[in-house]
Amino acid sequence: MSEVLALEHATLIDGTGADPVTDATIVIADGKFTAAGPGDSVEVPADAQIRDVTGAYVIPGLMDANIHLVSARTPDTLLEYEGRYDDLAYEAAELALKYGLTTVFDTWGPAAPLIAARDGINAGKRTGSRFFCAGNIIGLNGPLSQDFFKSGLTFEPATVDRINQIWEVGCGSNLIQLTIDGIGEAVAKYIDDTGVDFIKYAASDHRSEGFLLFSEQAQKRIVDVCHEKGLLVQAHTTSVESLRMEVEAGNDLLQHPDHTGKTPIPDKLMAEIVEKQLPCMTLMATERYMEWMNSTRPDRAKGKQISQQNDKTFIERGARVLCTTDAFAYGQRVKNHAGFRPGILEDVVPDMPTQIGSGHFLWIKAAWEMGLAPMEVLRSSSAYIAQAYGKGDLYGTVTPGKAADLVVLDADPLAAPENYRKIRDVIKDGVVIDRSALGVNRLLADDPGDYAA
Amino acid sequence: MSEVLALEHATLIDGTGADPVTDATIVIADGKFTAAGPGDSVEVPADAQIRDVTGAYVIPGLMDANIHLVSARTPDTLLEYEGRYDDLAYEAAELALKYGLTTVFDTWGPAAPLIAARDGINAGKRTGSRFFCAGNIIGLNGPLSQDFFKSGLTFEPATVDRINQIWEVGCGSNLIQLTIDGIGEAVAKYIDDTGVDFIKYAASDHRSEGFLLFSEQAQKRIVDVCHEKGLLVQAHTTSVESLRMEVEAGNDLLQHPDHTGKTPIPDKLMAEIVEKQLPCMTLMATERYMEWMNSTRPDRAKGKQISQQNDKTFIERGARVLCTTDAFAYGQRVKNHAGFRPGILEDVVPDMPTQIGSGHFLWIKAAWEMGLAPMEVLRSSSAYIAQAYGKGDLYGTVTPGKAADLVVLDADPLAAPENYRKIRDVIKDGVVIDRSALGVNRLLADDPGDYAA
Amino acid sequence: MSEVLALEHATLIDGTGADPVTDATIVIADGKFTAAGPGDSVEVPADAQIRDVTGAYVIPGLMDANIHLVSARTPDTLLEYEGRYDDLAYEAAELALKYGLTTVFDTWGPAAPLIAARDGINAGKRTGSRFFCAGNIIGLNGPLSQDFFKSGLTFEPATVDRINQIWEVGCGSNLIQLTIDGIGEAVAKYIDDTGVDFIKYAASDHRSEGFLLFSEQAQKRIVDVCHEKGLLVQAHTTSVESLRMEVEAGNDLLQHPDHTGKTPIPDKLMAEIVEKQLPCMTLMATERYMEWMNSTRPDRAKGKQISQQNDKTFIERGARVLCTTDAFAYGQRVKNHAGFRPGILEDVVPDMPTQIGSGHFLWIKAAWEMGLAPMEVLRSSSAYIAQAYGKGDLYGTVTPGKAADLVVLDADPLAAPENYRKIRDVIKDGVVIDRSALGVNRLLADDPGDYAA
Amino acid sequence: MSEVLALEHATLIDGTGADPVTDATIVIADGKFTAAGPGDSVEVPADAQIRDVTGAYVIPGLMDANIHLVSARTPDTLLEYEGRYDDLAYEAAELALKYGLTTVFDTWGPAAPLIAARDGINAGKRTGSRFFCAGNIIGLNGPLSQDFFKSGLTFEPATVDRINQIWEVGCGSNLIQLTIDGIGEAVAKYIDDTGVDFIKYAASDHRSEGFLLFSEQAQKRIVDVCHEKGLLVQAHTTSVESLRMEVEAGNDLLQHPDHTGKTPIPDKLMAEIVEKQLPCMTLMATERYMEWMNSTRPDRAKGKQISQQNDKTFIERGARVLCTTDAFAYGQRVKNHAGFRPGILEDVVPDMPTQIGSGHFLWIKAAWEMGLAPMEVLRSSSAYIAQAYGKGDLYGTVTPGKAADLVVLDADPLAAPENYRKIRDVIKDGVVIDRSALGVNRLLADDPGDYAA
Question: Recorded GO terms, molecular function (chains A, B, C, D) (predicted)?
Fold first, then answer.
């Protein structure tokens, strides 16, 4: 981007926690912020293209700490798109960007096609959210396994193995049969073989029982291996014990620590998480969603109530929470499929949080309802995520020297959570995105706009 | 074929029941037999290409009254080859021809791709057995249904419907909910919509219980509709009642009438079948196969014992039996799949009769073991099938005016059943087939030669 | 009952279709009506016990043409009560009588324990509805089979066989593998072996597909055998074809002829049913039930909508309809069981018609809503049922010489359907039933009163 | 037992490791040994009943470190015998004693009925093996759960819960959702509530995956709680990691440490087990069994091969191995049941090791084949087990002061393993058992003698 761009007369909320600056000017050059502040204090280069955004609010580009871009969640889709999973990632990344997410973190998917799409977007081949990815959840089998399907499959074994291997790359449930040394070697090899950006492993299982996959020593070994390779690491946990083990093992981020099954987080563990300001990727739900869940799915609601209780405690005690949706780009064919484990995707569910492109708005709404201060809501959806993933010097705030990612809103995001939806413009790497061109030719997904209400 | 071909010094067994003619000459022109008889009585045109087959036996091209060319029997295969089912039919037809089958009758498959392959072979685009097809078994659902799979499927409903419709074309199990008029109209429409060569309907079900799909009056209506449309008709039966109903409804051929579940065919019904010389497409098994079945699958063996008992009675009483295998072109991926209903395909099964390309040799062996006279074995595998399907004037014997389909054997087929395997040459429509070029690039199937022992 | 009982000052609606008689007197001696008519025309014996029922309405004892007294519908119950199924029948018969049903017809159950309970009640050992029973539905397997369970069972095969045999007594699905002679002999033996009162066979299956079990000739044979043995016969049908076959086979009663799956009854068949006044045991549902079904189970609702349409046509054309509920005595443990085929028993279902003791009130309500004249509603729930089952000379109207079965209501049953629920007294065989003593010590069932609202 | 008994002219192998003593005399009084040694050195009381056992070999009563007396392994059995599980335990204990097992250790079963039977046998109400029991495997659900059944159950949820609770007593899979404190409290309560003799917990799961149930810290807590309560503790392990954790947690005994899934025990861990002489309850199989397994179940055989490899290493390095069978008293109804997890019980399996009454002979044969010295085989099947379970001062050797449990053999057990089967007499607590009276009226089990060949 050789052109210089200047936004003038904005109200700037830069994501650092600083007070909003009215009548602000933001200058962008070569894809980076070069200045941002009160209009009268910022010098605009003579050759700058001027964009008058009077009445608008400028915030950092939004982020999501946990999404899944390859939404190939039915056997049919997995077979139909075999060899083209990168296309699914591109589709999802487009839809994410359209709704203000300039950076997202993919915490489960097939490494090779994800990395192809990641690099394709970075190289400008396609337009979409910038993303970083973990590939498989270390210790889980691929999508055509009991970890993700409730019922038995009717496929040839060779088909199941072939598809699953695209995810597992040697780090599926076979790891639970190895020694600690064996586990460490497998994870190191996985990192080398795939080139992923960070690691997520399964401290407990993905079949909703709460079985553990790794001992405390094995978890420590995984964390050590990742750190030696220069990668941050997080764990999938679903019980108080697996959360405790994850924390003690030295994980850098906590993936849905609010999901502790039938037991709320004990005080001591909660205190440690707060004190260390460990990034908590919390799957908060809105009151409206919980009302529906409580009345129609009382059995499932129990675990979610514990989770919401944990979330409220996190906020009360000042834990570092991050906008986290577990979203993917789903559409009609996924919704009508009975076998996939995570479950309830019917159209009837209000405030369904797991659709890429609308889920983050619902997290913002939920955090707001739970009492997170408006400025913290904003930072939890931008700057804090960048910091947590070790990218704080590059992204997350409107600060000179950082990538020029921002969202221009028509209404004040500190006044009401729904104002985040009122997007006038999305700018990524200094480029004003043509949002109308995104998500036009869709493969699988509904338009997230449909889920925005 | 403008060239004229003459085979000389053959022992000719022409399929009419006439005694073998030694030192015979067979003359072929324009794809048809023009002369056949003792060498000294046949005039060979001057421009004829002479083929000296001294020591060999010439018989009519072999036929199979019941095979399935689209062997797409696993969900994986069905999805992987969607849009290319004709390729599967071509593969199977190649393998059939390679082993002497110049004409086969496909009694279950997807009409549109089958007809595409049928016409492609007839037009000379690909080399393979000439075939005629019925498309779906009227009243059964497609391959992704309980009629063919034991367990539930893990597909999106839309996928299941889409695949099944390629078979059903409006004539699946929906018919059992209609009135007789409604059934008749659906069948008429099916014939018009598909262009199939003959019709097979399900008198009883394909889930091995013996439920009936159609009442006597409904069956009569189906038969009438077919006859009005000029098509011959047969029914799938699995019980003495469904067989009786099929006969009374006026079917032209009887599909596996030997399969009557737990009750052998009653005398009166047997007598009627024999007297009317109704073509009986019998799924005879060899003694070796039965020994294996009896010792390893005693439960399944019971029904097969009844079937064999029926077959022996057919032969004793002089019923018109036809070589019938129910074969398809299977390979490793099918054998390792648990879900498909018909069942036992493991490598361990001796004399497994359902592989295209070797199954007909096993039928011949079984019929021989049961006492069918050698000359009748030959005619049951050629001329009788052509007659039963209304093609007796075109195919089935080495008779001037008929299509020049024949097999040249190195040993006497009237001396031992295994001599049918000793194929020197296959000629179809007067063309000497390059057998070494058949089945070279295979998609799914094993080489039937592997099953020939 | 040596005592003589006289009810005075009643409004009598005697079930013959005659106009109500105000200030009527009904005299009962030896369990039978000896007089009934205007108070001034009836002579009351001097020794009669007088019962002044001023303000009340006296109607014949109510009847249900299709119930199931042995409500052993979960595997647990079947095992827990093995050897004591008669106790379950007694429980259900008590609850039926408590709510006005003096005679019911059991159309599916285990013959031996049912007959034990039938005879026990008749002998005065226990108090309950008088009942007649068919035992098994000829052609269906027992309760631990796919005919009644959706999923596979986890039992030892010997257990499954042992339980199922209590129902089947040689007439399960094995019949579909027999010849017509074989079927006829099995049914004859069943009648001799069990001593049931009437026969019900499966013209179509009980797995909601609509497969046929018997050919037209086989059905005729079953009907003939029953008639030779002096028994009336009915068939279970679920499609227009099976209904047509049942009618043509000469059945005496039609079991749920309104259930014709996806196709309404064709005009010609409807006309025949009406003309012959064949008793139609219709499973009518109330508008309230249908509203719930339509909105929450749209897929299931389709078939039920066809059924309701058939019912309305029956009424419009003057067919002979009978109060029919398919009810059994269910309670909490049944409602929470996923495996049993018939389905939706949750507490949330309004106007659930299949609970013994309340289902008949809902049939009355439904028939009323559909336009059946009030007097016909009454006769369809009493006299017509007795006639249809060949018991018209013994039961069904308040007529001298018949069994003294009646219900005393506090409100006019011809004025509103809910008035049937306002029971003051139930009299059976001339005995005033102590309703408060019925259903006190319950085994499985909820109190039907709970379902009355 | 007030009588005094003396065995004379025996060859005594007392289980201490001492050389056999020929022409030995053993004196028993009040159920205990009072003397044992060379005939010329032992004084026989004048009132002693003399038993001349010339030619026979006297060894300590045999023991099995892991059996399951309540063999209620099918849903049918569990329901049919509900309330009478103690009868099943009595049956199994009878059969065990009949074949020389004077003491056995029950490592999985329902605590309450087991304890009733344990106390009943100790009180002399019934004759059978003396036994000690653990009740449930802490952390696993009851027998009607996925831990023990492969497929879903068709029961009412209340039935499943009721049966499972008899096993779980608050210590099922609910524990994996608790904190370490919560787990410790639950185990302490379990011990207090049940009165079991020792504790077994699940370090890894019972669904053959190798999931962990408890973290290292949680395992330590469980061990500590047990030790505080005075109980020995062992863990169920199925992987190298769970075995390592078990050892580090301080377990007193190791339950099937040879079962480490796909990875043999690493050297370091093996060395530690050997050095500490931790009792290894090894499930050794004979060569004949392995041949069958390798040829017919190649997939399952893989894990068993690793297990056998571990066993051989144990023996080579001098680990302390114990006779362990995992046996229960099974019969025909169990063998024909598809759902139960552990699996292969068909009659065709040679040397099937899991039948109570014959399994221990097969362990002896297997250990012998693997090279365990004959004297060690004997001690592993008697004295070592008593020591490992903390009962060495009471049982396990023919030593004055200990309980007079012994087996009189007709052939030398140090000469050939099959000689253990040649039982002349079994004496328990000084009483000569009438073996012909044991197992006469059987409930479920086959006679183990049938499996002895």
Answer: hydrolase activity, acting on carbon-nitrogen (but not peptide) bonds
Touching check for C45 and chain D: CB below 8 Å? Answer: no
**Residue, of A33 and D446, whose pLDDT is higher:** A33
Domains of chain C with bracketed CATH? 4-60+397-433 (2.30.40.10), 62-388 (3.20.20.140)
**Global ipTM:** 0.94
C208 in contact with B at a CB cutoff of 8 Å?
no
What does the pLDDT average to over D231-237? 98
pLDDT at D1: 44
**Residue A342 binned pLDDT confidence (cut-offs 50, 70, 90):** very low
Phi-psi region of B329 (alpha: psi -120 to 50; beta: other; left: phi over 0): beta
Q: What is A375-399 written as a DSSP string?
A: HHHHHHTTHHHHHHTT-TTTSSS--
- pTM, 2 dp: 0.91
Question: Chain C: residue nearest B242 by CA?
Answer: C215
Rounded CA-CA distance C171/C313 in Å is 35
- In whole angstroms, how far apart are CA B425 and each of A172, B2, B56, B375, D87? 53, 20, 10, 21, 75
Nearest Cβ partner for D179 among A174, A180, A240 = A240
**HEC string for chain D:** CCCEEEEEEEEECCCCCCCCEEEEEEEEECCEEEEEEEHHHCCCCCCCEEEECCCCEEEECEEEEEEECCCCCCHHHHHHCCCCHHHHHHHHHHHHHHCCEEEEEECCCCHHHHHHHHHHHHCCCCCCCEEEECCCEECCCCCCCCCCECCCCCCCHHHHHHHHHHHHCCCCHHHHHCCHHHHHHHHHHHHHHHCCCCEEEECECCCCCCCECCCHHHHHHHHHHHHHCCCCEEEECCCHHHHHHHHHCCCCEEECCCCCCCCCCCHHHHHHHHHCCCCEEECCCCHHHHHHHHHHCHHHHHHHHHHHHHHHHHHHHCCCEEECCCEECCCHHHHCCCCECCCCCCCCCCCCCCECCCHHHHHHHHHHHCCCCHHHHHHHCCHHHHHHCCCCCCCCCCCCCCECCEEEECCCCCCCHHHHHCEEEEEECCEECCHHHCCCCCCCCCCHHHHCC
Structure-model confidence comparison of residues D151 and C2, the more confident one: D151
Q: pLDDT > 90: what percent of chain D?
A: 81
Give the model's pLDDT for residue B72: 78
Do A104 and A131 touch, CB atoms closer than 8 A? Answer: yes
- Find, in chain A, the residue whose alpha carbon is nearest to that of B163: A76
Residue contact A214–D214, C-beta within 8 A: no
Mean pLDDT, rounded, for A15-31: 97
pLDDT surpasses 60 at A343: no
Query: How many residues does this entry show for chain C?
Result: 453
**Chains touching B (3+ CB pairs < 8 Å):** A, C
Min mean pLDDT across A75-89, B214-228, C257-271, D341-355 is at D341-355
Residues of B in contact with C178 (CB under 8 A): 240-241, 263
The pLDDT tens digits for B58-102 are 999 999 999 999 987 888 889 889 999 999 999 999 999 999 999
Distance CA B68, CA B37 (A): 36
Query: What proportion of chain C, given as a percentage, has pLDDT over 90?
Result: 81
Dihedral sign, Cα of residue C92, residue C98, residue C101, residue C102: positive
Look at residue A345 and tell me whether its pLDDT is greater than 70: no
pLDDT higher than 60, residue A69: yes
pLDDT digits over A128-163, tens only?
A: 999 999 999 999 999 999 888 766 667 888 889 999
Amino acid letter for position C7: L
**Nearest CA of chain D to the CA of C263: how many Å?**
33
